[in-house]
Specification:
membrane; Cytochrome C biogenesis protein transmembrane domain-containing protein; Glutaredoxin; Thioredoxin-like_sf
Length: 342
């Protein structure tokens, strides 16, 4: 109890003297906070699965609370709380994170309730020792239960991902996968008996991978340099009738090559500038689902089997120019430069 009372007092001091009261609902409106919670839950789930462990130093674990009187009881209580950390950290970390984001009074109540909940079994068993023989025997069920909690944490993480803006969801998922791999490296590629040099190399590599993945996936995606129209045959036909050049980018959310085309071709400033200067109608044809208008037109009107494909209609040309490859920025730029300026 005193262990958790100490945590509650520390939380009160931090909130009253060093911070402000946080509103939990407001925190969930911040994509950075939500992404951080998703990443934390994934790590805690991996802890529940036994991918890595949070150990207690042997200098603490090796001590026994054999003191007498109140001092001995307090020492034993603190020791029990510390030794339970590797087993309960995955669950308690999320509860503590929630409590610390509340008003200090509610946070104190929550933390103390956790302490009472952990202390009650000890109090009952020490008061009625005969109950010990009725307790389930330790065994494989304990490990399975802990792993089951890991899946519960992953379900919560998936739920939180749904609260992220659409532009952040995929990147957070990518980072979570890389982070999981690095945590696996940290916990399973080395052991206590591994040579220090190998241990340092492996774990340094894991840290570098996490930092690189964070730098790659977590920053907010750059805005579209080109103003795309949704696929609409009426708009396209009207532009062609007026003698206006039209470029149609057929893409799909599940198409990795399409994403590469976006970054390599359409995020180039010179391409975007030419499209604007030449008043080219830029159309994004989404073929993610089979019943989308762009999907039907891709097959029935343009006779194309799949994506990615870009079609450029040049006024006066008998046939449009089609690009099926990824690296066609140079060819596209040449054609755009030849178009008359408006």
């Amino acid at each position: 109890m005193l262990f958790f009372a100490s945590l509650a007092v520390a939380n009160i001091i931090l909130q009253i003297f060093y911070g402000t009261v946080l509103q939990w609902g407001d925190q969930y409106r911040n994509p950075i906070f939500v992404a951080g919670m998703v990443i934390l839950l994934v790590v805690l789930a991996l802890l529940m699965f036994g991918v890595f462990n949070i150990g207690v130093p042997s200098s603490i674990a090796g001590k026994s609370g054999t003191g007498k009187g109140y001092s001995g009881a307090i020492g034993t209580g603190f020791l029990a709380a510390i030794l339970s950390t590797p087993c309960g950290f995955g669950i308690l970390a999320f509860a503590f994170g929630w409590a610390q984001a509340q008003h200090w009074l509610l946070a104190t109540v929550v933390i103390m309730v956790i302490g009472v909940g952990m202390a009650v079994p000890y109090a009952i068993l020490t008061s009625i020792p005969g109950l010990l023989k009725h307790l389930p025997k330790p065994g494989r069920w304990m490990e399975l239960f802990k792993q089951g909690i890991g899946f519960v944490l992953l379900i919560i993480a998936v739920k939180l991902i749904g609260a992220l803006p659409q532009i952040h969801r995929t990147n957070v998922l990518y980072f979570a996968v890389v982070l999981g791999f690095c945590v696996w490296m940290w916990g399973r590629w080395v052991s206590y008996s591994t040579k220090l040099t190998r241990k340092l190399f492996t774990r340094t590599t894991a840290i570098v991978l996490v930092i690189t993945a964070g730098w790659t996936f977590l920053p907010a995606p750059a805005g579209e340099p080109i103003s795309w129209w949704d696929y609409d045959t009426t708009v396209i036909d009207s532009a062609l009738a007026e003698g206006r050049p039209v470029i149609i980018k057929f893409t799909a959310d599940w198409c990795l090559s399409c994403q590469a085309v976006d970054k390599i071709v359409y995020h180039r400033k010179d391409i975007a500038k030419l499209i604007e200067e030449k008043e080219v109608l830029a159309v994004k044809a989404d073929t993610t689902a089979k019943d989308y208008p762009a999907t039907l037109a891709l097959k029935n009107k343009y006779n194309e089997p799949g994506v990615p494909v870009t079609i450029l209609f040049i006024p006066g040309a008998e046939e449009p120019v089609k690009f099926h490859e990824i690296f066609f920025a140079g060819k596209l730029k040449e054609l755009l430069e030849k178009l008359p300026s408006k």
